[in-house]
Amino acid sequence: MSLVLSSWSFVAFSEEIRMNSSEKNWSVFVPKDKKECFIASQSVKDEAFRNGEKLSNVNRDRGVLFIKKSPSSPAGFEGAFSAGYPLKLGGKFSLTIDNEAKFVFLAHPKPKNSTEKNWAWTQSHDDLKLVNKLKIGSKAVLKAISHRGTITKDTFILTGFTKAIERLMELCD
């Protein structure tokens, strides 16, 4: 798991990565070496709940859903979520597509730095199924829990996902 984590940290924070194109709600990012390419979308709606009550204001960045092209993954892709706040350590979170398909995202149980605390990753055996469901879906909701116990729901619109993933495949090695 640490290989994936360090790889994602590089992808998310490299200064050499620039947005190449945008397909509706999804953006395609390609570094100069064309090796660590990914697509990403910010949440269009984010909600937070504590003790069953909806919170009107929380201090966090918007959630971002990522799909990275990955030759080391059996599926050829890896999924990740940047929550915009520290997640529950070792937490198991769910991404639901069109209220039916569910995928698990896992937070690191022992993050090495504050950046890793904000991230959750897919399980490699789900990556291909996830990409295929995102291609045909219209909306995805990721439900996560913060280190303080706040439940969050980030909603992503999937319009443009298929074109973005096709563009990613065209541009990257």
Characterization of the model:
- This protein has 173 residues and is α+β, with helices and mostly antiparallel strands.
- It has 3 helices and 12 strands.
- It has helices at residues 2-13, 127-136, 161-171; strands spanning 18-23, 26-30, 38-42, 45-50, 53-54, 64-69, 77-82, 92-97, 101-107, 119-122, 139-145, 151-157.
- The protein has a 12-stranded antiparallel β-sheet, sandwiched between helices.
- The protein is globular, with a radius of gyration of 15 Å.
Q: How are the strands of the biggest sheet laid out side by side?
A: 1-2-3-6-7-10-9-8-11-12-4-5
Helices and strands: which structural class? alpha+beta
Distance between the termini: 23 Å
Report strand %: 35-45%
* Gyration radius, in Å: 15 Å
Number of helices: 3
The major β-sheet equals:
12 strands, antiparallel
Topology diagram in text:
Blueprint: H1 2-13, E1 18-23, E2 26-30, E3 38-42, E4 45-50, E5 53-54, E6 64-69, E7 77-82, E8 92-97, E9 101-107, E10 119-122, H2 127-136, E11 139-145, E12 151-157, H3 161-171
Antiparallel strand pairs: 1-2, 2-3, 3-6, 4-5, 4-12, 6-7, 7-10, 8-9, 8-11, 9-10, 11-12
Question: Main traits of this protein?
Answer:
alpha+beta, twelve-stranded antiparallel beta sheet, 173 residues, 3 helices
Structure in a nutshell:
This protein is α+β, with helices and mostly antiparallel strands and 173 residues long. The chain has three helices and twelve strands. The chain has helices spanning 2-13, 127-136, 161-171; strands at residues 18-23, 26-30, 38-42, 45-50, 53-54, 64-69, 77-82, 92-97, 101-107, 119-122, 139-145, 151-157.
